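--- STAGE predict ---
source: upstream dedup step, 1 unique chain passed
mode: sequence only
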Amino acid sequence: MSTLDPNRLIMTGENPFIRLSEKDGDPLSTDASFWRVITCPGGPGHVLYVKSELTDGAWRIYSDNIAMARWLQQTVQGMLNPELADTSIPVIGAEFSKEGDPRYFWTERLVSYDDVVELTWHDCGDPLLIHTQPNQTPGRPYGVCTVLIPAHGARLTINGEQAAGTPFPRDREGKPFSTCALAFSESWTE
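--- STAGE serialize ---
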């Protein structure tokens, strides 16, 4: 039996996300998708796609590699959220840093000319290993293998102002999950 995945590897890195709402089931008040890319056709780098009341309900994109940010929009991120397939959204240059221990908390921080954005995940649950194949789910031409760590607490701040809303518990194939999670060791295939 072969241990080699037969699909073409297109990206590897991390993709933690924060999805907050005022009440469970309400539309998202904050939707943030953070990427730390080790390798992809656009090169390595970081990008944050964020929409919140703190951004006046408009998407903002912060990155240290515009080619990588645009590649994600045209592929995986654009598939995950079709609003982000729009490459006319400006990319704001930023520097990125991180701190923490994912067993307890994790913080991603970016600094641009105008903004300081911090994303923090805490009250982390047990990690889950997820593996899907390309086209396994209709409308998803990409497969992914990732370690998801649900975060039952999360916050996003821009220039010290905290986004409204909270994470809510979810179930993922019988395991406790959340609307916010760390996603590490993430590899996408086609």
